[in-house]
Amino acid sequence: MNVKTLVAGNWKMNKTLDESISFIEALSHIPVPQCEVLLAVPFIYLKPLQDIAPKWLTIAAQNISDKEQGAYTGEISAKMLQSISIKSTLIGHSERRQYYGETNAVIKEKLQQAFQNAVMPILCIGETLDERKNNLTEHVIENQLASVLTKADANKSLHIAYEPVWAIGTGETATKEQAEAMHHFIYNWLKENISETFAQQTKILYGGSCNTQNAEELFSMPHIHGGLVGGASLDVDSFKLLIEIGNTITNKNN
Ligand code: PEP
């Protein structure tokens, strides 16, 4: 079962190296959290931040190549991440899908690359506003899952981030009921199509304008196991507060 809330930040394409180092140094002073904490940072900061990060903080990538190795200029492979001891990455973030044309087929390859190289993926899925308005939300989510995961993956581990596209960076958050309904739907899909154990072991994070004001009520819902947080992870004080919320919920659940 998922006992620890996961607070995951996604810096996207923000911060200089100096700003990144100051953030990690400031974060290092807090007591060891009871919840899990992860930060997805730009590729070039992975190694310097990994070198100074406290043990409890997972430094993760924001993307990987769908290819194993070779003539793919500008790409970074899962194997390269493994070689510098980076153990997690986002895959299929809606900004990758929207601005860089990532299809479910490409995302499936990326997932397999992550699995083969012991890099824990956080698979991002979510519907657009149009899709929600047209009652296509469940259909879209089911398709995003069914296109990339099969029963053959039952012995693998991943986290899923449910991130309604209309809520990312917009200040508009799904209500806790809307989010819980979709998380429950995802849990049931995993249970029916992969396995019950797989569903129970997969953390399903909520993402989309999650912040210090709404995190507690979202993370308290039964099928919400934490959050993937963009904007609110850029400020160290706000990220510390999110970790405190993660601690509170983790303590409540144990
Ligand atoms: C994200 O980057 O995954 C995200 C949810 O961003 P924001 O919290 O800014 O909406």
Sheet bearing the most strands, described? 8 strands, parallel
Share of helical residues: 40-55%
Which radius of gyration do the C-alpha atoms yield? 17 Å
According to DSSP, the number of beta strands is 8
Q: Secondary-structure element order, as H and E?
A: EHEHEHEHHEHHEHHEHEH
Q: How confident is the prediction overall: mean pLDDT?
A: 97
Strand content: 5-15%
* CATH architecture identity: Alpha-Beta Barrel
Q: What's the arrangement of strands in the largest beta sheet? A: 3-2-1-8-7-6-5-4
How many H/I helical runs? 11
Q: Considering the protein shown, what is the CATH homologous superfamily?
A: Aldolase class I
Basic shape: globular
Distinct compounds present: phosphoenolpyruvate
Straight-line distance between termini: 11 Å
Spans of at least 5 consecutive residues whose pLDDT stays below 50 are none
- CATH-assigned fold name: TIM Barrel
CATH class: Alpha Beta
Structural class: alpha/beta
The number of domains: 1
Report on this structure:
By secondary structure, the protein is an alpha/beta fold. The chain has one domain: Alpha-Beta Barrel (TIM Barrel), CATH 3.20.20.70. Helix content is 42%, strand content 14%. Strands 3-2-1-8-7-6-5-4 form an 8-stranded parallel β-sheet. Helix 7 runs parallel beside helix 8. The longest helix is centred in the last third of the chain and has 18 residues. The protein binds phosphoenolpyruvate. The site of phosphoenolpyruvate (PEP) has 14 residues, from strand 8. Phosphoenolpyruvate binds next to strand 8.
